[in-house]
Amino acid sequence: MEKTLPLRFHFSGDKGGKRSLHWHEHMELLFFLSGSTKVVCNGQTLVGNKGDLVIIDCNQLHSTEDGCFFCIRVAPSFFEDLSFNKIMFNTHIKDDKTAKFCFEAIAREYTDKRDGYEIEIKSLVYHLFAHLLRNHRMESLSEYEILLQKNKASKIRQILEYISHNYNTNITTRSLADVFFLSEPYFCQLFKSQTNQSPMNYINKYRSEKAALLLKNTQHSITEISTSVGFENPNYFTRIFKKYTGQTPTTYRKQNP
Fold first, then answer.
1. 16 domain-assigned
2. What is the DSSP track for 157-214?
3. pLDDT tens, 103-147?
4. What's the domain range around 194?
5. How far apart (Å, rounded) are the C-alpha atoms in residues 198 and 196?
6. Is the pTM of this model over 0.70?
7. Rounded to whole angstroms, how far apart are CA atoms 29 and 74?
C-alpha cells in the first residue's frame, strides 16, 4: 500500500495472476491488458478479455487464473465521506472508454512516480468511481437483495475459515451444516452458489494444496502427510491428490525437491 494513499497496485503478468478462492477488506478492480483470464466472483465464472474491467466488492469471495491485468485495491478508508455498504456495481464491464482512460492514466502515474503522482492518482480514482456510480451501479437490486447477497458471502467466509482450521479432521457436508445450524441440502446449495463448487470438492482441493506444501518442504512419509491433511486412507489420498495436481504424491515430491 502506498504510504500516502489507502490503495494497493499490482501488475500481473501471464504467470503471476493465479490466486485460489480468497477475500479481503479492499474493493478490487481488475483491468485486463491482454489475453483471456477466468475469474470466479460471487459464485459466477466470467472471462476477462483485453479492455475489460472486473469489480470485486469488499469481502467478496473470488479467484483468478494466470492472466495479464492491472489491479487496484481500494481500502474502505479511501472514501472517508462515502459508504458503499448499500451499493453494488456490475461485476463485468466491457468496452468502457472512461474506465480504460482512468486505468491507463493511473498505471502511468504509478509507474513514473513523478512529483504529485499520489494526488493525481487520487483524483483519477475519484473520477473513476463517480463514473461507475453513474453508469455501472446495479439499479435492479433492492437494498434488501444487496444485503442478502452480502450476508450469504459473510456466511461462506465463516465456513471457509472453519474449514481452514479443521481440514485435517473428519469433516463432512453433514457435520459442517450442523456446525452452522443449516440443513445439509441448503448448506450445499449455498456453498455452491457462492464458490461455484461443492463443499467436498473445495475441501479435497484445499487438503491437496496443503499436502503439496508438505511434500515440498518436509521429509514426512506420504502416509504421514495423508493423515495430517485429513485423509485416513493413503490410497484415496493418492487418487484425490492426482485429481487436483495431475501427479501422484511420489512423482510430485521427485519433481519438487
1. yes
2. HHHHHHHHHHTTS---HHHHHHHTT--HHHHHHHHHHHHSS-HHHHHHHHHHHHHHHH
3. 999 999 999 999 999 999 999 999 999 999 999 988 666 777 777
4. 144-255
5. 7
6. yes
7. 8
Let me know whether 213 and 249 are in one domain. yes
Indicate which CATH number applies to the domain containing 48. 2.60.120.280
Each residue's pLDDT tens digit, 107-119:
999 999 999 999 9
**Cβ–Cβ under 8 Å, residues 154 and 59:** yes
Is the residue at 1 inside a domain?
A: no
Check which CATH number belongs to the domain holding 161 and give it. 1.10.10.60
Tally Cβ neighbours within 10 Å of residue 40: 19
Residue range 189-226, pLDDT digits in tens: 999 888 888 999 999 999 999 999 999 999 999 999 99
Measured distance CA(60)–CA(214) in Å, rounded = 29
Q: CB-based contacts of 239: which residues, under 8 Å, 6+ apart?
A: none
Same domain, yes or no: 92 and 164: no
Residue 51 near residue 72, CB atoms below 8 Å: no
- What's residue 65's pLDDT? 83
Q: C-alpha grid cell for residue 240?
A: 484425490
Cell reading at 191: 456453498
